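Project outcomes to date are best conveyed with an example. Our students and postdoctoral researchers have been running inverse folding experiments weekly, and each run begins with a structure described purely in tokens. The record below, which covers 310 residues, was selected by the lab manager from last quarter's runs and is presented without edits.
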């Protein structure tokens, strides 16, 4: 088409989109003769991409690696507080399991507390257990964090004088990319999609509300979305209490503009799952940043799978 005496392809010209003089806004581009948004988002997406081993999301990819180190913890006469100092790695987990009972006909207690490595007075996770003469099966788990303020440095057992218990205390390393995310857009960690023929990736970790500056509430990843293609993500998350809160997955551009909220989960004790899809409508590759964050006051574990559709 001729616009002001110049031959113009109005199907893809941002200054003459579909017709002469039709200018697309700065956040739009011209495609097929109409001004379009660079991205299209779909939440609650159901289809799984073909050819990706990460779909459906496999929680075991961030499971226990190798043989756990096991210690047996038993009661001390008279009860009271028993502290077990810890040094924990970024990809380490801790688990207590066993039986406890009370020698009294009234209920007793055995409480578990993991305290912060950086701030010893701060309880990261606490579980209060009431125990009776008929006994109870107890379990308690804590995963480490990239941040020392949210990493366990001490396990505390609080027991009354009548408590009898034998607990198995396991320390284990987590397989896969655990707690690999960056603390900001500037330090976002690349995901292995479209690299070396690899089309999909899976990461996992823990987000928590313990650090005063809030850096432990979110983790950042990034990837390149090819022209006119789509990426599918699957998010799984759980919290430590029945009172649920939300874990979100937001997509950003490199200029920190928000693209959309790709996925959102009401996290409870058991893992919940959801999927989202992000489409690059442009004819150029786009760098996309993903932020996993929580709005809650208790820690949450997440698993994230991503694939670029073939």
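After processing, the design step wrote out the following sequence:
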């Amino acid at each position: 088409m001729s616009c002001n005496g110049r031959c113009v392809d109005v199907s893809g010209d941002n200054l003459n989109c579909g017709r002469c003089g039709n200018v697309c806004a700065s956040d739009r581009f011209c495609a097929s003769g109409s001004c379009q948004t660079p991205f299209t988002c779909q939440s609650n997406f159901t289809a799984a991409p073909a050819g990706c081993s990460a779909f459906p999301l496999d929680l075991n990819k961030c499971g226990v690696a190798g043989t756990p180190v096991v210690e047996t913890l038993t009661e001390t006469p008279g009860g009271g507080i028993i502290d077990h100092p810890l040094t924990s790695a970024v990809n380490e987990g801790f688990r207590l399991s066993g039986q406890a009972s009370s020698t009294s006909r009234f209920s007793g207690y055995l409480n578990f507390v993991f305290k912060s490595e950086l701030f010893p007075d701060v309880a990261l996770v606490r579980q209060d257990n009431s125990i009776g003469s008929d006994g109870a099966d107890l379990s308690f788990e804590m995963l480490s964090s990239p941040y020392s303020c949210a990493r366990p440095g001490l396990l505390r057992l609080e027991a009354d004088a009548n408590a009898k218990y034998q607990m198995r205390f396991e320390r284990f390393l987590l397989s896969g990319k655990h707690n690999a995310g960056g603390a900001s857009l500037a330090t976002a960690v690349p995901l292995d999609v479209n690299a070396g023929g690899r089309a999909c990736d899976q990461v996992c970790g823990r987000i928590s509300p313990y650090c005063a500056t809030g850096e432990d509430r979110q983790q950042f990843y990034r990837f390149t979305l090819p022209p006119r293609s789509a990426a599918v993500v699957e998010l799984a998350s759980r919290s430590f209490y029945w009172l649920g809160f939300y874990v979100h997955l937001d997509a950003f551009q490199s200029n920190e503009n928000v693209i959309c909220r790709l996925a959102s989960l009401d996290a409870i004790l058991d893992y919940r799952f959801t999927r989202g899809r992000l489409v690059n409508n442009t004819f150029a590759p786009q760098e996309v940043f993903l932020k996993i964050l929580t709005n809650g006051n208790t820690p949450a574990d997440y698993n994230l799978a991503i694939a670029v559709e073939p």
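The longest strand covers residues 163-174. The chain has a mean pLDDT of 86. The training component of this project remains on track.
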